[in-house]
Amino acid sequence: MRSWERALSVLEALRERGQAAGHGWTLDTELLPSHQQQVNALESQGVVELACREDRAELSVLEGRPVRWAARLTPYGHDTLAYGCSRPRAEPPPSEAAPDRQPVELIPSQMAALRVFVGLTGQLRVPPADGLAEQVRTARVITGSSGGGCI
Q1: What is the per-residue burial (b if ≥16 Cβ within 10 Å, else e) of 68-82?
Q2: What is the mean predicted confidence (pLDDT) over 62-84?
Q3: What is the pTM of this model?
């Protein structure tokens, strides 16, 4: 399993267990130590939040036992998971040239990823930059390009 597949698997586990718990947190007894280590690494990427001392104290009261570790997805983690589950599998059909824009060349896989990202706008907790979705929708293929698109 590739590292990004492992990361998506861990994010999915956090989401499922957090939803099942009702409070959004995945607790120390719900993940293997190896998965906890992966979660700790994902925190530095901003996709996971580890519970602070106060949060662990509140969770301990709710659980009726000491909670030494807890984690949950950040909004960026939810977006990463949404994208990971919807990432492009095949290239979309190319579009036509746009004369009034300065071209930025993207290879087909980059354009496909960008189209999927802006297509998830309604599901993302951190929306794309203003105007990006429209630029992607109106992107055009330049004659002689490798088939990706230009924004």
Answers
A1: ebbbbbbebbbbbbb
A2: 93
A3: 0.58
